[in-house]
Structure formats: C-alpha cells, structure tokens
Amino acid sequence: MGYILKVFKIAILSVGILIMLLPFFWMISSSFKPLSEVILIPPTWIPHNPTLGNFIYIFTQMDIFRYLFNSFIVAFISVSSILFTSVLGGYAFAKYNFPGRTVLFYTILSTLMVPFQVRVIPLYMLIFKAKLLDTYFGLALPGLADAFGIFLMRQFMMGIPDDLINAARIDGYSEPAILLRIVLPLSKPAVSTLTIFTFMWNWESFLWPLVVTNSESKYTLPIGLARFAGKYLQRIDLQMAASVVSIIPVLIVFLIFQKHFIEGITLTGMKG
Amino acid sequence: MRLKYNTKLILWAYIFLFPSLVSLGIVILYPILDAFYISFFRWNLLSFEKSFIGLKNYEGLFQDSIFKKALINTLYFSVISVPVTLFIALIIALMLNSLSTGIKNTLRTIYFIPVITSIVAVSFVWRWMFEPSYGPINHILGFLGIHGIGWLSDTKWALPAIMIVNIWRNIGFYMVIFLASLQMIPKEFLEAALIDGATSYKRFIYVVLPLLNPTVVFCLAISIIDALQIFTQVYVMTSGSGGIVPGGPLYSTTTIALYIYKIAFRDLEMGYATSVAFVLFLLIFIFTLIQIKFTERPFEY
C-alpha cells in the first residue's frame, strides 16, 4: 500500500516537472531552428538542422544589451529608494511611539489595496507635463515608494527586543547609530527579501514602461521584447531566440541566490 | 498601557518617517486623489477638452457592453485560475514535504523556475505553443484524441489558454509558501494523530488543513488581488499587427486592466478610464474585506 502510494506520488511529481519544463525545452529547441522547421507539421522536438542564425540576427538587429542595461538601471533606482525609505519608515513605526502613529500606519497600509491602474493616469500626466517621458527618472518614478516595504520592515523590526535598543541608548548610542549598527544588521533577512521582491516587480513591470517610453534607447527588457516581437510578428524562430536571451540573466541570478529567493518568499508568507 | 511620549524620540521618529512620507505622498497618495478627481471629468487628451460631468463616467459604465464583458472576463479568469493554482500548489507541496531533503529542494527549485522567468518571454513561448496547427500543445493533445482546439484564435478558448499560462507560472510561488508552513507544523501534532489511529486522509483533514488555514487565506488573498489585475500576459498573448488593440478575438480576453489601458492610452479618454480603474479598486477592496473577516479569528497553535 505504502509502496504503491510512493510510486504514484513520484509519477505525479515527474509529470509536473515535465509540464514545468516543457515550455523552456520548446523555446530553446525552436531558437536553434530555421523558421521553415518551426512551422513544420508535426512539430519536431530536436532541431533537424540546428542553426545559430537566429541568435546572430538577434544580437545584430535588436539592442538587447541596451534593454538589459535600462531595466537594470530602473530597478536599481527603485530598489535603492525603497530600501532607504522603508528601513527608516519601518523602524519609526516599529520602535517609536509618536502622535498619529496608528492613523498614519493604517493610511499607508490601506494604499496597498489601490491597484496601479488607478494611479497610472495621474502619474502619466505628471511625467508628461514635466517633459520626463522617455527618461530614466520617468521610468523609475512609480517605483520610488511602496507601502509594502514599510509594512515588511515594521513587521520584522517589531520582533527585535526593545531591551537591546534601550541598552544601546544607555550606552550613549545616538538614534541613527542604533538603527545603523544594531537594528539594521539584525534585519538582514527582511532587507534581502525586500530587495528581491522590489527587483522582481521592477523587472516585470510592463504597463508603465509601455506608456512612458517612445524611443528604443529607453526600452526596458519586457518592452524591447514585446516591440521586437510586434515588428517580427510571424518570426517565431527570432522571438524564441530573443526569449532565451532575455530569460538567461535572471535565471543565472536565481540559481546563484535561490536560497535567498525562497527564504524571502517564505518570510513574507509568514509575516502576512 | 499608554507610554508617555518622549519629545526627543518623537522628533527622531518624524525625521525617520520624512523620506517615506514625501515619496509616498508624491507617488501613491497624490495620484490616488487626483485619479478620483479626474474620474468626474470628461477629459480627452486629443481634444484638450476637460469638463466636469459629475457621476456621468460612472453612470456610463452601466451602458458599456465592453466594460461588462471585461468585468465578466476578469471574474471568470480569477474564479478559475486562483483555486486551480492553489489546489495544485498545495498537492505538490504535500507530496514534496514527504520526500527527503535533497530531492525535495531540487524539485522545489525546478517548480519555482517559471516564477522568476520574464512574463513577456514566457507569454511569447506559450503563444506559439498554443498555435493550432504546428504548435506542440495540439500535437500532444492529438495523441490523447483531442483535436482542433483553436486556443487563442477561438473566443471560447482564448481566455482559458491565458489561465493555463498563469497557473503554470504561479504554482511554484504558492507551493514554496505552502511547503514552508507545512514544515512548521509541529511533528507532535501528527504523531498524536497517529497514536489516535487517524488514517492519513483524516490526519490531513483534521490536523494538517486547520493548521494550514492562515497560510491558505493569505495565499487566497494575494492571488485574487493579483488575478484581478491580469494585464501583461493578455497584452502579449493577444496583441496583433498594426496597432490592433490586444484583448481579442472579439473582446473575449479583454480584462478590466486591459480595458483601462485601451481607454486611457489608445482612446485617450482619461476621465472614463479612471472611473473603470476605481471599479477595479472596488473589486480588490471587497475581496480584501472578505479576507480580513476570515483572518479575524486566527487559529491558535
């Protein structure tokens, strides 16, 4: 009985793995095929006439490194801003008692319910009037602040004992020194979680860069990829090669830091 | 207990809060209030016409058949993809939890890979996998005797195709959360159930599931909020040539988020678009209230 159950379990998990990986397999396989083979009926799983032509075309016709660079710059600005404001704000809410604390905190928290679609038009008009369309600042603007970061840091820092902070005060530490030298080092898991989440959100951001970029030189990776595919609408071979190239950088980062990724998600799951 | 305020510390608290308050004010609070204001105007960017029309935008929603379609599509999408994603994620987490650490961690990583890959890239991959004549999905279904599903070109199957992609991409995320909370269930609970002679099915229903409850509610809330805002996958999988607005065929995949994009950035009707956006907010608000109601009586370990 237990044996059968185990075989059954492994069978299900294997089918699951197969389904998870099938799109990647098909993507990589198609990226090495000439177009004539991609549209062959029935489809071939392993390229019969493997070619590097698609990749050569991608690197000469599509400014993919530019898009990668733009995506990285925008994500970097956003992550820096959110880490800075969230650590300070989260600490204030977690460890200080001040008039208006509760009202302020719940006001900030409640903005989490408002979808980006509500804010996108006023933000667009702001950028439009300030003539900041097609600039890094314009791209990064909506990512400069986020209530989630403040919430996450507050929840985490509330778990740091007050005695530790009071002892440091008695030792003559200034308030910023307490935050910088005692609280921040203890908050590393929350900081790394927030970094990963903010980075991923920025990296995947689509609607905003779609509406504020017009020139190719400012496309982020998702926009560059979507515009490229729009231009070569039926060139599945090229689209798959471009997809391969755009997936690889994050995949490498993930495989190196996967422990942090998974711990980060677990942390938000528990704190939620 | 009410602590006495300490003036010096209050000052520091406000100094620490200052950067957050300024940035949240500009990026979050101002746009929300401004959007609410805009939603009472007829405002077309092309004609530069901006006139106060009161609640007309909101009233207009009731006569807008595309809006109704978008609303139904969004709810249909959420009601199917959320439970299916969470159910599969839970099953996989339960199966992985009983494996030895090494295999467990390897499989967990593989299931997680779709979560970190670019939505745009995988949407293109799936778009062509769903191609009816030479795509691999219909080829595989052919072996099972299923033929001729048009997927993205069929009004009945286009939205389910996008659901499949969304489910595929999100399973790993929720599986990791479920797995973590399964690992936190004290071993004694399960052992006590074993001593009582509970079968593994009963053990799951009466011991594991109640302990998992807060996690399930949390996952339900964030996945619903996420599903209601579905945009990128639809945009990429249904966009055509020559500036055709995505969301077809025949609006069968037009979600609320996509419709807002269309009204605001293709038709340039800013006032009407914000009124639709507030309907999206209302939906999220309702689901959040339901979630708060459920978590008000937390389960004690």
UniProtKB/TrEMBL annotation, chain A:
InterPro entries, per this entry? MetI-like, MetI-like_sf
Q: Where in the cell is it found?
A: Cell membrane
| Entry keyword Transmembrane | yes
Q: Can you cite an annotated GO cellular component?
A: plasma membrane
Query: What topology in the membrane does the UniProt record assign?
Result: Multi-pass membrane protein
Family, according to the entry, reads as follows: Belongs to the binding-protein-dependent transport system permease family.
Q: What is this protein called?
A: Carbohydrate ABC transporter permease
- What organism is recorded for this protein? Dictyoglomus turgidum
Supply the source organism's classification: Bacteria, Pseudomonadati, Dictyoglomota, Dictyoglomia, Dictyoglomales
TrEMBL record, chain B:
Which superkingdom heads the taxonomic lineage of this protein's source? Bacteria
- Give one GO biological process term: transmembrane transport
List locations, semicolon-separated: Cell membrane
Transmembrane stretches, by residue range?
12-33, 75-97, 109-130, 167-185, 205-231, 243-264, 270-290
Keyword check for Cell membrane, yes or no: yes
Annotated membrane topology is: Multi-pass membrane protein
Residue ranges annotated for the ABC transmembrane type-1 domain, each copy included: 71-291
Q: Provide GO CC annotations from the record.
A: plasma membrane
Its signal peptide is: none
Q: Record's InterPro entries?
A: ABC_transporter_permease (IPR051393), MetI-like (IPR000515), MetI-like_sf (IPR035906)
Q: What keywords tag this UniProt record?
A: Cell membrane, Membrane, Transmembrane, Transmembrane helix, Transport
* Keyword Flavoprotein included in the entry's annotation: no
Q: PANTHER family of this UniProt entry?
A: ABC TRANSPORTER PERMEASE PROTEIN, INNER MEMBRANE ABC TRANSPORTER PERMEASE PROTEIN YCJO
Q: Which family does it belong to?
A: Belongs to the binding-protein-dependent transport system permease family.
Protein name per its UniProtKB record: Sugar ABC transporter permease
